[in-house]
Structure to design on (72 residues):
């Protein structure tokens, strides 16, 4: 429970089915790391959430541990 604050980081490998919920779950200044799209390649994003909450969305192939640590 974050007390309605939200979470700092969300890791999403699912994609389309969870993308919108992942964005909503983020706290101000939060980071969404997308590394898969098993349910589809399209995610809906309300751009206002991105700038009002100062969010960061990062895509990665998770190809190495070093890259994973860098985006975290």
């Amino acid at each position: 429970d974050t007390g309605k604050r939200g979470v700092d980081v969300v890791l999403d490998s699912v994609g389309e089915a969870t993308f919108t919920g992942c964005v909503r779950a983020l706290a101000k200044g939060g980071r969404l790391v997308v590394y898969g799209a098993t349910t589809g390649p399209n995610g809906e994003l309300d751009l206002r959430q991105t700038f009002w909450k100062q969010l960061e969305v990062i895509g990665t192939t998770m190809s190495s541990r070093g890259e994973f640590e860098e985006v975290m």
